[in-house]
Amino acid sequence: MKISYLPLRELNARFFHLDQQSFTAVSDSGQYIGGKYVERFEQQFGNYCGVDKVVSTGNGLDALTLILLAEKELGNLPPNAKVLVPAHTYIATFLSIVHAGMQPVPVDVNNLVLSVKDLKSQIAKVDAVIAVDLYGKLVGDEVYAFAKAEQKPIYCDSAQSHGAISSSGNRSGSIARASAFSFYPTKNLGALGDGGAITTKDHLLAAMARKLANYGRDNRFLNSAKGVNSRLDPLQAAFLSNRLAQLDSDNNKRLLVAQFYYHHFKNDHVTLADREFLNHNAWHVFPVFVADREHFQNYMLENGIETNVHYPVPPHQQEAFKELNDLNFPQAERLHRTEVSLPCHPLMSLTEMEYVVKVVNNY
Ligand SMILES: Cc1ncc(COP(=O)(O)O)c(C=O)c1O
Question: 135-151: per-residue pLDDT in tens?
């Protein structure tokens, strides 16, 4: 049996007819930047997340960067703010901070995503925090409460957690002061190209981010800030509207796969994240941890199962972040060394799940 890690073509084929209609509608509209399809998606995504402001952007990295730039422009963060960030994340989180002219302050993570324990030693030294819902797992409400009590603004990199619901019943995107989403095609809510969005309840922050995403302009000919050009295409917005209607059911299917794995995996060489990980998770990635990753991945592939890694080299060890290369974050480094992502997507059949279990248990 062959099992692909993420059958993107098949996942998108489900929307083929709707997308064809969207293409015709956008093409007929004569408006190819902004306009009603972008506004409609922003409205729909805002309703879905439970916020009244959505600022769509060209991608997730821009969404993160624009949150920080907007806060700087509004005077809510100093120009070279120190921003606490988990050492276990995708490099985009770190890059957004430097692109905003600020300094990343990485901290080690005890349990895959930030906890209060991880924040404690550094919180007094930073101006703000970016939490990351890595693998789709929401950072706990207590982390937000702690940052609030310390009077530090906390933002969220929600690029992997579309649709997840917190213990207090709030949707990803409505928990932090502002959240950044990516609609990269492999995400749980993915476009047919690049896309991103900022969600927030703060009207001033939303207005400033929108202005900065559009050259910093106040009107057609007057610009009062040095902005960038970062926009979601109407075509992508229309495709995303088609997919948003399916997100809850897709996430439920991912959860079923994850629960099945937790229930049936029995192999001491393959470690799962602790069971708490099953809660408040959109299951963008199903991670397991294996000492000899290369051997395990080859074994899985020999048995027809494609796997992935999120991510092999942590940001602080990348050449791009030479200035951080001397830092040590043992937990994050171990996660980066041992993580393997297993197929966990909405189209998996019971037979496929059973096959993955059989192969993993025989390792
Ligand atoms: C955790 C995280 N942050 C940020 C991003 C950046 O998103 P994009 O690729 O849309 O710029 C991604 C996705 O690639 C991500 O996984």
Answer: 999 999 999 999 999 99
* pLDDT at residue number 362: 98
Q: In angstroms, rounded to a whole number, what is the distance separating the alpha carbons of residues 240 and 38?
A: 10
- Of the pLDDT bands very low, low, confident and very high (cuts 50, 70, 90), residue 326 is very high
* Domains assigned to the chain: 8-244 (3.40.640.10), 247-361 (3.90.1150.10)
**53 in Cβ contact with 199 (< 8 Å):** yes
CA of 62 from ligand 1 middle (Å) equals 9
- Assessment of whether the complete model's pTM goes beyond 0.90: yes
- Which residues make Cβ contacts (< 8 Å) with residue 362, sequence separation at least 6? none
Q: Hey, which of 85, 156, 182, 336 would you mutate to test ligand 1's pocket, going by the most ligand atoms within 8 Å of its Cβ? A: 182
Q: What is the pLDDT of residue 69?
A: 98
Ligand 1 surroundings by CB, under 6 angstroms: 59-61, 89-90, 92-93, 132, 157, 159-160, 182, 184, 194, 196
* CB contact at 8 A, 192 and 236: yes
